[in-house]
UniProtKB/TrEMBL annotation:
Protein name in UniProt: spermidine synthase
Keyword vocabulary terms for this entry: Polyamine biosynthesis, Transferase
Known catalytic reactions: S-adenosyl 3-(methylsulfanyl)propylamine + putrescine = S-methyl-5'-thioadenosine + spermidine + H(+)
Origin superkingdom: Eukaryota
Length: 256
């Protein structure tokens, strides 16, 4: 970790603070394009997130014609895992923000709405759920919400990126508090491979908390969620009869 709480990876296109930079935010435009995309004709070339004079802006083909911008106070962490670029920054209005490959994953101000909806809707539809599997969700927010259900006896989480887990525990302790529950077991690895080793009818519910299908994660997402039907068959085989499978869907308003 660098001084003043700023960690910088040399592999990332974000510059070290100079004398004319305030709080780790450059006065120059710093663009973070999705790494590994060499196809000039790809739609992913439309995607770019920028740090421009004190602001973080997320621009995505998922919502053409608009961008989501947050004023930045300080970059708290930057790193590159085996899978993606990871950044945490302190915003002026939304608290700390977790960004993966240039895509905002959560903010302290409004993360509860997502975590609660993806967790409590399925679990409240099941009489006395006892065993729950979370695939993805490395920030720990879904774990926190699953743990509120007293009937649950076992909570397994399979997250492929250990850096996301570690960063969340360090910078988002109120969200990652879910890892402290004694019922939680963390499995670091690929969710598809994990499911293949799970005995039939193990879980009452599976919650898939994955990233938006953009950039590097898009290929994995398409294979993992939208691709081979084997994934859904795997989910079905390890679920007990009357259960639910909850996963990410795009906005019906922005992506009809």
């Amino acid at each position: 970790m660098a001084e003043d709480g700023l960690a910088v990876s040399n592999d990332l296109p974000v510059k070290r603070p100079r004398e004319d930079e305030e709080n780790g935010v450059s006065a120059n435009t710093v663009a973070m394009e999705m790494e590994g995309n060499t196809d000039k004709n790809s739609n992913n070339n439309d995607y770019k997130s920028s740090v421009i004079p004190g602001w973080f802006s997320e621009i995505s083909p998922m919502w053409p014609g608009e961008a989501h911008s947050l004023k930045m106070e300080k970059i708290l962490f930057q790193g590159k895992s085996d899978y993606q670029n990871v950044m945490v920054f302190q915003s002026s209005t939304y608290g700390k923000v977790l960004v993966l490959d240039g895509v905002i994953q959560l903010t302290e101000r409004d993360e509860c709405a997502y975590q609660e909806m993806i967790t409590h809707l399925p679990l409240c539809s099941i009489p006395n759920p006892k065993k729950v599997l979370v695939i993805g969700g490395g920030d720990g927010g879904v774990l926190r919400e699953v743990a509120r259900h007293s009937s649950v006896e076992q909570i397994d989480i399979c997250e492929i990126d250990k850096m996301v887990v570690d960063v969340s525990k360090e910078f988002f302790p109120d969200i990652a508090v879910g890892y402290e529950d004694a019922r939680v077991t963390l499995h670091v690895g690929d969710g598809v491979a994990f499911l293949k080793d799970v005995p039939a009818e193990t879980y009452d519910a599976i919650i898939v908390d994955s990233s938006d299908p953009i950039g590097n994660i898009a290929v994995a997402y398409c294979i993992f969620i939208l691709g081979p039907r084997e994934f859904y068959f795997s989910c079905k085989s390890v679920l007990i009869a009357q259960v639910l499978h909850k996963s990410f869907l795009r906005s019906p308003f922005l992506s009809p």
